[in-house]
Amino acid sequence: MTDEVPVLDRGWIAVDDLPRGVDLLAEVKRLNDAGVEVMWVWNLAQHWAGEDDPDGEERQESLTFGVFNDRGLLTWRAGFRLWAPSSGLNAEWEDGRLAGMHDVAVPPRAVVPIEVVYSVLAEFLSSGQRPNSIEWELGERMPGIPSDEE
Q: Mapping DSSP to helix (H, G, I), strand (E, B) and coil, where does residue 96 land?
């Protein structure tokens, strides 16, 4: 399946680097509609901070989204802060796969109905900003991830 959609083979996607004519939302829907056996997860930003920007990670903003048939996931990251939807469905950590391959942890409250994922992804692709069509709350971070207070 991913041979047809090489952009989805990347766990980290920059909107600025999408090949001309690629409709990311349509590609994600096509993959999910075919049926997936694990939660596929991607990190999406307008552009990624480069190695020549030592403070880039502290300022980086990105949308993490995923699909798993009738549900998906959403988080928003700004620097080391993580937000999850206030209406998220999962109370515990879950497992996902970055680009369908590499294990990644899905934080509590990140799982939402698939239509919410599609709507928020479309909003981000249109605006490049943190989507405001859902309410966000500070999310739970995995142990070992730095915080702004540390």
A: strand
